[in-house]
Write a structure and sequence with these properties.
Elements: H1 10-27, H2 29-34, H3 37-65, H4 68-100, H5 121-124, H6 128-139, H7 144-150, H8 153-167, H9 172-197, H10 200-215, H11 224-248, H12 254-260, H13 262-271, H14 274-287, H15 293-306, H16 309-325, H17 332-348, H18 355-366, H19 378-406
Helix pairs in contact: 1-10, 1-13, 3-8, 3-9, 3-10, 3-14, 3-15, 4-11, 4-15, 4-16, 4-17, 4-19, 6-17, 11-16, 11-19, 13-14, 13-19, 14-15, 14-19, 15-19, 16-17, 16-18, 16-19, 17-18
């Protein structure tokens, strides 16, 4: 487990920082604003290690699988889990938003809403098929170095998977030095990560304090039922669906696994970024939850990029909320289109704050709704972003644990623990 600058366990420090940051944001917002650079500095530190950590982690993980068969088996299991969990999340949101009808009777007031999100359609297309084609084209980097410089995680992961796979095809004399180099590089990056994570309480205090100072507690006025619907959907998925998958498929103890992942979950809530949380996710999975480096280094970086259960659920609820607010009744076919597009959009969403807000434009255009509807949900998005990112990271960790169990690993938090 990562050491911190204080003696108290890191997850308790992070929880205390959350509470103190929220209190400071309410009571002394001016003071919090003056020190919010600590939060930005912490995030920059995390982002600094993301690309080299993912590169070395995936290359080591794939090379350790021993060849194409191992990569294919683990990749197939990962794809099945991520698709299933995301679809379960979307269906949960779809059912809830049809039951609660949060957009019915909402005053739109869209006259002065920003149009900055409209440009996102230029990249992602205006239909599920064009979004899928664009996603496939975006997978392959024309310049891997540029992809690393730009932080394009999908392209980085594809390149690292290919690089690691073909390391295993080399003669032993050429393979062993490369494996040793990337293994040592990964060990160094984990040391750097632990150093940065030691300052997590200070960074999280500043991030949470700044958010509360800016939004206050009245942010949910007028959007209470919508926010409650998203919260309830996330709670059901995180507290019922995913624990059931852990128990039934992995024979694992959900509460003990959640306790093991608590530093990563609290950090995800504070930063609203699954990518920024990835270093702590890797550390918690391997050193607290008992998942092997072999599985963790492959599944977790992939999940932080393509597995966005919370984001997918939110996008589905938000699209139907906007439709209800405009008085548009979506047919079963159109709602099915929302489900498919939400799944594709969640895969293409970046693991950064407010990425889901940009991706919602894909769904709105797919079902013929105006992009101006996004302005309706801006007021509460930051708080919901914190919650859905936590669910994203929780799902990634559950997936890694379930897949590790399917691979026959024994050091996990099982039901017999």
């Amino acid at each position: 487990m990562s050491r911190s600058i204080f003696r108290l366990a890191l997850h308790w420090q992070i929880l205390a920082a959350l509470i103190l940051g929220a209190g400071a944001g309410l009571l002394i917002p001016d003071v919090v604003t003056s020190v919010d650079f600590m939060g930005d500095l912490f995030l920059k530190g995390l982002r600094m290690v993301i690309v080299p950590l993912i590169m070395t982690s995936i290359i080591c993980g794939v090379a350790g699988l021993g060849g194409g068969d191992g990569v294919g088996r683990l990749g197939g299991k990962t794809l099945i889990y991520y698709t299933m969990s995301s679809l379960l999340a979307i269906v949960t949101g779809l059912v809830l938003v049809n039951l609660t009808q949060p957009g019915v009777g909402v005053d739109l007031g869209l006259a002065d809403q920003p149009d900055r999100l409209a440009s996102s359609m230029d990249r992602f297309g205006d239909s599920p098929w064009s979004a899928l084609v664009r996603l496939l084209l975006d997978l392959v980097p024309s310049n891997p170095i540029a992809a690393m410089a730009e932080g394009n995680m999908l392209q980085i992961i594809v390149f690292a998977l290919l690089f690691g796979t073909f390391i295993t095809r080399l003669p032993e004399a050429q393979r062993e030095p490369l494996e040793a180099f990337f293994s040592s590089s990964f060990a160094v990056m984990m040391k750097v990560t632990h150093f940065i994570l030691a300052f997590a309480p200070l960074g999280i205090f500043a991030l949470v304090g700044r958010t509360v100072a800016r939004t206050g507690l009245d942010v949910f006025a007028g959007l209470g039922l919508y926010a409650l619907t998203v919260f309830l959907g996330l709670l059901i998925h995180a507290g019922v669906t995913l624990p059931l998958l852990l128990r039934s498929v992995g024979q694992l103890h959900p509460i003990l696994h959640a306790k093991a992942m608590s530093p990563a979950l609290l950090t995800a809530f504070s930063t609203s970024s699954s990518s920024a949380t990835l270093p702590l996710t890797l550390d918690s999975l391997e050193n607290r939850a008992g998942v092997s480096n072999r599985v963790t280094s492959f599944v977790a970086p992939l999940g932080a990029t393509v597995n966005m259960d919370g984001t997918a659920l939110y996008e589905c609820v938000a699209a139907l909320f906007i439709a209800q607010a405009y008085g548009v009744e979506l047919t079963i076919l159109q709602q099915g289109l929302v489900v498919v597009t939400a799944l594709l959009a969640s895969i293409g969403a970046a693991g950064i704050p407010m990425a889901g807000l940009v991706m919602i434009s894909v769904i709105l255009t797919a079902v013929g709704l105006p992009l101006e509807g996004v302005g309706l949900i801006l007021a509460v998005d930051r708080v919901l972003d914190m919650c859905r990112t936590t669910v994203n990271v929780w799902s990634d960790s559950c997936g890694a644990a379930v897949i590790a169990r399917s691979e026959g690993e024994e050091g996990l938090v099982s039901l017999k623990s």
